Amino acid sequence: MKVDVINKDGKTTGRSIELPASVFGIEPNEHAVYLAVKAYNAAQRQGTHKSKEKGEIKASTRKIKKQKGTGTARAGSLKSGLFKGGGRMFGPRPRKYNIKLNKKVRSLARASAFSAKAKDAQIKVIEDFTFDNPKTKEFKTVLNNLEMSNSKSVFVIGDADKNLFLSSRNLKEAKVINITELNTVDILHANTVILSESAVNKLKASNS
Predict the structure, then answer these.
(1) In which order are the strands placed within the sheet that holds 123-126?
(2) Digits of tens for pLDDT over the chain (208 positions)?
């Protein structure tokens, strides 16, 4: 599919660019998208939860009651989880929640998200631009020109641009990200995906 290329003033440049059908024209695979979102959310968990177990409690190790005949559970010391202040039984331990996702599944999920946005006409292509210095005010001007000031958008650029990134960092409604770091969740959360020409060319190269 062909998309008109606009500039940072929101005006058409008179040029158009072909979006690769293998990324923007497939039938979205909902299960692949589900797996990608699940893996992303799992990776956000710190996994630092921890409770003290019996061996980590500082208390007397004296056996406080006889082993049998009490009608209650056996307890070797006050460290037992049976008592207040004792160690927790089978408590949480630090762990990683990361879910392994195959590269092909991750690519399919991202292409599915792109295709869904393209189907809803929520994809725009902008010519490459940058700022001489980080200026949030200038980036907000670009958003106003593109009529994106009141909706969530993600700017996908082909190469890392520190000035663009710093200019958008304080804005909740916009995000600038390199095409190599873009994930399915970023695409889904945005009302509009704005691709730079260099980002489209990199997508074409990686899917040729």
Answers:
(1) 12-18, 2-6, 123-126, 192-196, 153-157, 174-178
(2) 889 999 999 899 999 999 999 999 999 999 999 999 999 999 999 999 999 999 999 999 999 999 999 999 999 999 999 999 999 999 999 999 999 999 999 999 999 999 999 999 999 999 999 999 999 999 999 999 999 888 999 999 998 899 999 999 999 889 999 999 999 999 999 999 999 999 999 998 887 6
pTM, two decimals, is 0.83
CATH of span 2-29+102-206: 3.40.1370.10
**What's the Cα-to-Cα distance from 5 to each of 8, 143, 199, rounded to whole Å?**
10, 16, 13
**Measured between alpha carbons, how far is 68 from 142 in angstroms, rounded to an integer?**
78
Alpha-carbon distance of 136 to 159, in angstroms, equals 20
